[in-house]
Amino acid sequence: MTKNFFLILFSLTVTIFSLEVFSRFFINDGMNLDYEMSKYAKDLKVLSSNEKVGIEHIKNKSGKYMGVNIKLNSLGMRNDYEYNEKKKNVLMLGDSMTLGWGSNKTFSSYLDYYTKNKLNFYNAGIGNTNTIMQINNFFYNFETFKFDIIFLNFFINDLENVSISNVNFFEKNSYLYLLLKSNVKRFNFRIKKTDWGNYYKNTFKNQDMLNKTFEEILRLNDYCKKNKIEFVVHFIPELRNLKQYHFVEETDLIKKFLKEKNIIYLDSIVTLKNYKEEDLWVSKSDSHGNDLMHNEVAKFLFKKYFIKFL
């Protein structure tokens, strides 16, 4: 019996090891979203000492994810340059869509070009964060810096109640574990008959998160008014089904609030809906914006807002 036990244990170990090798060297081709997001979290992110911030970027770090190099400066921002108080400075807050996940350039870096480098655009986007975390990140890490303009870039999942926890050993080191975890998550979605659209819509039904998000936006707006900083909210649309957009009602809910509070907002769906959705994606399995999307957003923001600074 003992012999059979060790034989089964040995066979199981060999099987798991073989599957891990297969996952690591065959499925991991540098373009698997789950794997690449895990690498990014492991390499470039750290838990913040401020629980309201949740996640911060590690300063002066870089890595390659989804075939694209992400380089962070001494402030933990995705910029090739450092902070320069002598220029007119624009802070871009947001999530992975602002960070430029999977894109060689971001709408922040394209705006450097369109404004002929007369302004500095600081990309403070951090993947897997919500609006509350992004605003608290500003007050915790960047309030002491002089910014002339602050853009809060809002994506449809920025009301999600993000759960922050230390990743376990297997999440850090096992590609097989990540593969199984992602497939279990997709299976649960199917069982609950929930797709990505319904999932995003359901986040707007959490009234507590909605109220807290509005409170944080007002806090940032009040700060900007007090310090004579221009404040703008920019809506980045979900890049699937742009022509028959699923989230008009949800976006209008935020816009109504902003309008009531006299907060300027822009919505880049105006320009992006003219494109075939797949042409704007990083890959067929990753609907983050690619270089084309970021360039088009930059052109839109330049024409609608930043052209006045030239």
Topology:
Elements: H1 2-27, H2 33-44, E1 45-47, E2 55-57, E3 62-65, E4 68-71, E5 88-93, H3 96-99, H4 107-114, E6 119-123, H5 131-142, E7 149-154, H6 169-173, H7 175-191, H8 196-203, H9 207-226, E8 230-235, H10 248-260, E9 264-267, H11 269-272, E10 281-283, E11 286-289, H12 291-304
Parallel strand pairs: 5-6, 5-7, 7-8, 8-9
Antiparallel strand pairs: 1-2, 3-4, 10-11
Overview of this structure, please?
- The protein has 310 residues and is an alpha/beta fold.
- The chain has a single domain, classed as SGNH hydrolase (Rossmann fold, 3-Layer(aba) Sandwich), CATH 3.40.50.1110.
- It contains twelve helices and eleven strands.
- It has a five-stranded parallel β-sheet with strand order 6-5-7-8-9.
- The longest helix has 26 residues, at 2-27.
- The protein is globular and about 80 Å long.
- The N and C termini lie far apart (82 Å).
- The model has no long low-confidence stretch (mean pLDDT 89).
